[in-house]
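Subject: Sanity check before I submit

Could someone independently write out the structure tokens for this chain? I want to compare against mine line by line before I put it in a report. The sequence has 293 residues.
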Amino acid sequence: MDKQIKLFLEFLQKDKKLSDNTLQSYKRDITQYHDYLSKNKMNYAKVTNEDIKNYLSELKDEGKKTSTISRNLATIRSFYQYLVRIGKIKEDPTENIQSPKIEKRVPSVLSTEEVELLLDQPKDIDLKGTRDKAMLEFAYATGMKVTEIIDLNIDDVDFNNSTVTCHSGKKERTIPLGSLAEKALKEYTEQARPILIKNEKNKSLFVNMNGSRLTRQGFWKIVKYYKEKAHINKEITPHVLRHSFAAHLLQNGADLKSIQAMLGHSDISSTQVYAQFETNELQNIYKKAHPRA
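---
Independent answer below. Compare away.
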């Protein structure tokens, strides 16, 4: 099975072109499944539908979250579909196994006042402050994922049309830039970035203080630093800025289809989780405006 796992992961990397983070999740899940089969002296090519269900039940008994169990099943399903495809097995043992239903949690969002407080923390008085202000303004203005932001190159920004083009796997989408984000980004790209980068061949949009492409961890640390500086008593991550971007757009009249396009959701159901914020806002408007509310 070790050889098949290695070939499967190579297939995901080369053919499916998955990101490193997604690839690591697949590797972790399939390795855990392999350990389970080894412990129970089971042959991966001979497992049945019932065997897979028993494995998922064991994960549940271990206290794993529904989302984790669902992801594990998706990984195992992909593995067996790959084995069918290359002719190693004839039937997929995961066929007809339903994924456990995941309850959609209410996304954590900031109020507009909290966003303003957070974005007001970086001061453009030095290179770091100029970069950080541009980064935070950009994250909130575009709603992009942190991995998408750190993968951006300078050429992805079109100041003439006030847009940024995001490349996510084989897909790409163009997102408008707000005036405040564009102003902060212009200042950073014209005044700070040229000094920070050590080599003009470096096309990274956001770089660290050593001039290298900013990492995911580096981005998270910057957000955490300014959150603490602003004394906001909420957990704030780059993804909370993404949630806030979507919720605030909806509250101010944007339609779900447009938000879906900007967030890069392939399925509208992923975007519909924000509809509750629209409902809350409508209730507030109703209470303030209706004479008998």
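---
OP: Matches mine. For the report I'm noting this point. The chain has 13 helices and three strands.
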